[in-house]
Each structure stands twice: as C-alpha cells, then as structure tokens.
Amino acid sequence: MLRxxxxxMTVEDVELDPPMRGEVLVRVxxxxxxxxxxRYANGELGQGYWPIVLGHEGAGIVEAVGxxxxxxxxxxxxxxxxxxxxxxxRYCVAGKPNLCEVVAEHGAQGMLMDGTSRLRLLDxxxxxxxxxxxxxxxxxxxxxxxxxxxxxELPLWQAALLGCSVVTGIGAVRxxxxxxxxxxxxxxxxxxxxxxxxxxxxxxxxxxxxAVDRVxxxxxxxxxxxxxxxxxxxxEPDLAGVVRRLTDGGVDHAFEVVGRPETxxxxxxVLRPGGSAVxxxxxxxxxxxxxxxxxxxxxxxxxxxxxxxxxxxAEIPELAALAVTGGLDLATVVTHVDGLExxxxxxxxxxxxxxxxxVLLVDADLAGYPxxxxxxxxxxxxxxx
Length: 385
Ligand code: APR
Ligand code: ZN
Fold this sequence. Notes:
Blueprint: E1 15-16, E2 23-33, H1 35-42, E3 52-53, E4 57-65, E5 77-80, H2 90-93, H3 101-107, E6 119-120, E7 126-129, E8 139-143, E9 147-149, H4 156-159, H5 165-177, E10 185-188, H6 192-203, E11 209-213, H7 216-225, E12 229-232, H8 239-246, E13 251-256, H9 261-269, E14 271-279, E15 301-304, H10 312-324, E16 334-338, H11 343-352, E17 357-361, H12 364-367
Parallel strand pairs: 3-7, 10-11, 10-13, 11-12, 13-14, 14-15, 16-17
Antiparallel strand pairs: 1-6, 2-4, 2-8, 2-17, 4-5, 5-9, 6-7
Helix pairs in contact: 5-6
The structure holds adenosine-5-diphosphoribose (APR) and zinc ion (ZN).
C-alpha cells in the first residue's frame, strides 16, 4: 500500500469486500512491478489518489465470482486486464475499448466500474484500487472484464507480464504502427515495456531493429528479444545521427518507451521522411515536449497510445498462446523475483535503471516459479547484473 507518495510502500492487513455483481475475486500468484507504479509512488501521477494499493500487471486464480459473471469460474487461471471495458460506451462501441469512458471516469479516481472501492484500511478509511487492479496483494476484486482466462500451460509468474508490458508493447507495434516485414524500427528505452516492443518488432519481421538504452545491460536483453543493433545512449553524443546512419537515413517507425521529453524528441529525430513515432512512455503530468514543426512537411507523424490501442482482453489469450509455443520469451525479461515485501527494492531498481522486470511472487507455488515447490523460491536464481 502507498499511504502517501514519497513514503515507502508498506505491507499491511486490510479489508477486502467480496465481489459484487459483475466482479471477480482473484487470488494473486504473481505481479510485475512497472514504471507506472513508480510514477504513482513518486507522486508524478494520480494526485490525491492515496492511500492506494498499487499493482496492475499480474496473474492469479479465480476464487469467487459475483452475480452475472459467466466467462470465468473458481479455479480458472487469469491475467489482470486493467481496462475492463464496459462494452457499451461510445468508445467501446466504436472499437476503442482501451479508451472506455466508464474506466476513465471511475478508474481514474482509483475506483471500480461502479465508482466504489472494495478496499478499506482496518480503521475504515477507503483505499483506492491502483489502475482498477490493485494486485500487489494476496487477493484482488476486479471487474469481470479485468480477469482474462488464459491457457493452463503458461506459468503464472510469466503470464503476469501479459497484462501490462506485453499488451502495451506488442500492441504499439501491431495496432498502432502496424509495422510490416522489412521495415526499420528504433526502440528507445528497453525496460520491461520496451523489450516487448522489440519482441513485437521481431514478430512483425522488422529489420533492422535498433535498440537504444542508457544502461548497457538492457542492450543485451534487447538483443535477446531480437534487436539487430544496439546503441548505448550514455556513450553516444550524437544519438540521432548514429541511429540514422545505422538505418540508411532514418527509421520507418520509432518507439519511445521511456516517458521523457528528450527521448520523445529523439524518436522524432531518428525518423526518415514519412516515418512515424509512437510514444508509449508515460510522461509525468505537466511535462511538455517540443518538435521542429517544419519537419511535419516531410510526412513525419507522432502518435500516442494507451494499453496497446487494441482490445487487450481479446489479445491477452492470443499472446498467452504465443508464449506457450515459444513465440514470446517472457522468462528472460524477468530479471528479478521477490516476495510482496520486496516491492520497495523493485521500485528502487527501476529508479536506478537496473534489471528489466521484477515479478513479485505473492504465492510462489501458485505462480509455478522454478524451485517453488521445494520451499521458497530463490530470488538470486534469477538476478541480473
Ligand atoms: N535514453 C535512453 N534510455 C533511457 C533514458 C534515456 N534518456 N532514460 C531512461 N532510459 C531507459 C532505462 O534505462 C530503462 O531501461 O528506459 C527504460 C525504462 O524502462 P523501465 O524503467 O523498466 O520502465 P517500463 O516499465 O518499461 O515503462 C516504460 O512505459 O508504460 C510506460 O510508465 C511507463 O513511462 C514508462 C514506460
Ligand atoms: Zn504498467
């Protein structure tokens, strides 16, 4: 729980009400720690939305369902989808469920789809649900659309990643940029989300795929996900020039996966005429980016995206199937595992740019983490220099 931005998160006992009509109670197995959680913890997002239980990338097993829930039953393995689209508002009807108005209205306040919370402190204070999910917890109540069933073959410690970084990263490539075979791609920022953009570009047949990060260890991970070239942002004074030279004058598609003005500007600068830049990174409120507007004349474009800009609930099972057949390598993106109480350390690693994803093994056995059945999983087994 985050009681106040700037304070360390705490692990506490709280009250969780049973699922109401159209809701699902999930026993959480594993939860990934994303840079967006860090934005809340730092107070860069969600002004006034505390105390809050964070965590929006996770997986678990259904424990109970409220009335009118038919798509899952107790015992089903599910991935959380943090935009449980209402399927009735004008955005949902127009085929943009990621922009669901009900989610935007209530979810933005840290509430479930009916505008209320199921979470309370022991003194009765209402707790907010982080991104409709609040899965840094042993149990979570979410809207029915927030629990997406997946095939049993995929271990839940890997499945957890599907609900944010994978849908977001691969969606940016497939749904937004619509990258085609042989097109050139640059990915700026190769953390948990950026590595999925690299994987998506590889799946789309992009070539070359240039990965840019200021932490050398990330570049090795990017190569493992399919980057053909890597550029150390900390070592190169003329980054845009280097990327343009590697790609015969600039890329068809650039992806910004950091959330900073200078990297948005870099994504623009590495484009060839006619190229498009997609900003995946989440920039703190109030921050502006500036572009040399004359270059709009060369048919360049800049696009935003939210949660992959497709239909996440439909895509999560497909992506799970892809991971089961080896098309997606989720295991190597998980550079650290820890228990729930390791969340602060995971946030500190994100602050330092160390490792890619930390997955909190809320229940290591249920998560299917290697070695978990023999006792407590050994985090050092998967630490990354
Ligand atoms: N140039 C290049 N790379 C950078 C720079 C920079 N100036 N600054 C940071 N990076 C790299 C970091 O080294 C790290 O590898 O960007 C990466 C960011 O990754 P994570 O911290 O793991 O964040 P992630 O969870 O991937 O989220 C990335 O997407 O969803 C949003 O809110 C999220 O804005 C965040 C972004
Ligand atoms: Zn996230």
